[in-house]
Amino acid sequence: MAAQITTCVLCNDDQPLDEFHIRTSEHIFNQLLDTFQKRVKSHRSSRNGIELKVEVQQRNGFVLDFSQTPDNKGNHILNITPEAFQRHNNKLDFLCTVKNGRTRRGDDILITSGGILHPFPHYSFKDPNGIVGQQRFVQLGAGESYQLIVSFELAETAVSNFKIPFYISFQTFNQTKAMKGFSICRAIIVSIHNNIAEDIVEIGKSPFTHNKWEDVSVIPATTNFAAMRPDEFPIPKKYFRTMIYGLRRDFQDGILGELLHKLNPDYVTRENYCDFFHILLWLEETSCILGISCYNMEDVRLRCITSKVLELKVPGLAEKRPSVLKGDCIQLKVQGDHQAYEGIIRNVTDSTVEIDGVFKGLVDTVAEDPETNIDVRFMLRRIQFERMHQGVKQVVATGFVDNLFPHESLLNNPVHESITLEQTDLHNQQIYDNAEQITAVHKIINKTSRSVPYVVWGPPGTGKVEFYV
Q1: Nearest Cα to Cα of residue 170 among 182, 178, 160
Q2: With bands split at pLDDT 50, 70 and 90, how would you rate the model's confidence at 229?
């Protein structure tokens, strides 16, 4: 009798729960996330007599829309316009007041540490007295308070949402009872938007689900652009499963061995050049497909702009999470349906995308009922991969691959540098006084690399572009 295969309930991919899978970065991340979600509720609440109050420091007479009381997810939310943020000198300070609410004498509390949970250059956590964070403790007696500051600062105003998770750790201090350590975790969300009433994306449950679509058929977009999508070098279906695991797992179907044989001897040569780079590009594309699938959305709303164009709000567009470009494909379906409709993105803003070419029946459904629940799947733009595959094909087809792997005998052919340069010979005469740039030009026109391509290399800002021009 065959052994029953147990699948992983955390990764949502029907993957077998074996020793290989539990060591993958995806499983480790999902396991940590599951543990965090189970425990976070107990960490965000005031407890053990400690009260945590968060206030925004307001400047220049502004009264800001800030929630001092956290929501059920432990978030303090601040809505602010770019103008108001600039009037605060592009910086906001949040005063975190810790109070020992215990009333009995001797029930002291120690503040042992604090900080930003996910360090980021724009966020900072500080103690005005320089004690917390310096391996020293602050002791609070019954009824005493202490203040710490969380700061948010940008070099320039940006229209977006910023989440600042922070923590403060404590330890009970009682001579007659066992000492107990605990932490309180909160998050400050700063939403900078032009029109707070209309543009703010509701902060709460993320629409991004990473859920796969099962048994869904797709009706192509009706625009001409859709017919132009290249498909000469798609990822071979038989390779896809193995590539998901980065060529590190053998499914006993012979595919891994076939791929490794094509990559032999584990580095690029004249003989394996074509297979080597096609496989590397397919691996990169597989990684991108898995990455963009994290932005699958569920239970969202669309808005009809015209009789043919739909608008979708997408959190994170300003930070390119996801990175969406004009001309990209997107698939839409009514929640619970097995029929999806493809569209083409015709315009992208900081918070929305406009979608054209969608089947008219779906557009009519949204027009009649704007509250229709829609699921969204972003599709990877393949044109850049197709162009690179074409480049690999042309290198081999034209025989240029021989120039990339020159024979050692070329070293025996003498080179005569017969051409000299004067400043007046240069189109960009400013490089004449730069020894490295003028030497590069001199070497190229004298063909000192023979038939081998001449490689120009240098760190940023060293004049490569000026040299080319």
Answers
A1: 182
A2: low
Q: Please, are residues 216 and 338 in contact by the beta-carbon 8 Å criterion?
A: yes
The larger pLDDT score, comparing residue 98 to residue 177, is at 98
What mean pLDDT is predicted for residues 275-301? 89
Backbone conformation region of residue 399, classed left if phi is above 0, alpha if psi is from -120 to 50, else beta: left
What the block records as the tokens of 234 is 């798609």
Interstrand relation of 217-219 and 339-348 (parallel, antiparallel or unpaired): parallel
- 44 phi, psi to nearest 5 deg: -90, -10
- Which uninterrupted H or E stretch holds 344? strand 339-348
Angle at which helices 273-292 and 237-244 pack, to 10 degrees?
A: 70
What's the whole-number mean pLDDT along residues 262-273? Answer: 90
Give the angle subtended at the CA of 115 by the CAs of 58 and 166, to the nearest 5°.
65
Q: How crowded is residue 315: how many other Cβ atoms within 10 Å of its Cβ?
A: 20
Q: Which residues pair with 450 in a beta bridge?
A: none
What tokens does 272 get? 């394996």
Instruction: Of 39, 73, 67, give the one whose Cα is nearest residue 53.
Output: 67
Q: What Cα–Cα distance (Å) separates residue 102 from each residue in 106, 171, 177?
A: 9, 14, 15
Q: What are phi and psi of 34, to 5 degrees?
A: -65, -45
CB 351 within 8 A of CB 390: no
